[in-house]
Design brief:
Layout: E1 4-10, E2 15-21, H1 23-33, H2 37-56, E3 63-69, E4 77-82, E5 86-91, H3 108-112, E6 117-123, E7 130-135, H4 142-151, E8 157-165, E9 171-181, H5 190-199, H6 203-208, H7 213-221, E10 227-233, E11 235-236, H8 242-250, H9 254-263, E12 267-270, E13 277-280, H10 282-288
Parallel strand pairs: 5-11
Antiparallel strand pairs: 1-2, 1-10, 2-9, 3-4, 3-6, 4-5, 6-7, 8-9, 12-13
Helix pairs in contact: 1-2, 9-10
Bound molecules: zinc ion.
Length: about 290
Amino acid sequence: MGDYIVKAMVMDGKLLAYASTTRNTVEEARRIHGLSPVACAALGRCLTAVGMMGIMLKSDKGSITVQINGNGPLGNIVACSNSKANVKGYLNNPNVYLPIRPDGKLDVGSAVGRDGTLTVIRDLGLKEPYIGKVQLVTGEIADDFTAYYARSEQTPSSVGLGVLVDTDGSCKAAGGFIIQLMPDFPANMIGVLEEKLGKLSTITKYLESGKTPEYLLNLLLGDMGLEILYRVPTMFNCDCSIEKVERAIYSLGRREIEKLAEENEPLEVICDFCGKKYTVETDKINEMLK
Ligand SMILES: [Zn+2]
């Protein structure tokens, strides 16, 4: 089955919920970037989160970019999604290996680092993008998104993200959820919800055994009158093209293009997101100067 995101609500929208299964998406990222297990978990969690954030965008032309820099060995992590949950991402150092934590989990927090920020750039195709930034809490990524929603968007949320890496290094299961409380959500229900979230064991344990995102949401919200609204596919899909590469060079400005023209050699450009190689011929560079 392909990856997808499900959107649901309870109490006529007083609570909104998103849940996803993203194994193929994360596996594609691993294949493209040659990610170590802990790098796969870190980037995979970001790609899972950003896909759900993508379908929250209120504009078809919108896009969302998440940047995490925790000053850990993985370096910068970048993940993007459009409003159709086509996601892409990369991180600086894909070959980071750290000892497994005492509880048997990958040490994502130490690999990401905790001394830095999570930045969310929401571009709705208007003049200025909306930018929100928070200090990282644990570097485990889900906690950091929860902090982002609380502090930057003033929306009390619970974010859960999981990536299970198999013994051969491939992604065995991945997915997540984002639950958001609207201001009119009854305060006396918050405790009940928190208790259920506390009891929920690792997300990937369910997904690995063939359970669906709908099953997860039902587990959490079934007795509050869960209403499934729709499902959308999500996938790793880079939208780079030679035209975009040329436009990026053009935007460097006349002086930079003159320097390139003087070198008089075809310019090799590699897409950070998908590793695709582009060659810009000297003719094209000279043409830009006209
Ligand atoms: Zn690309």
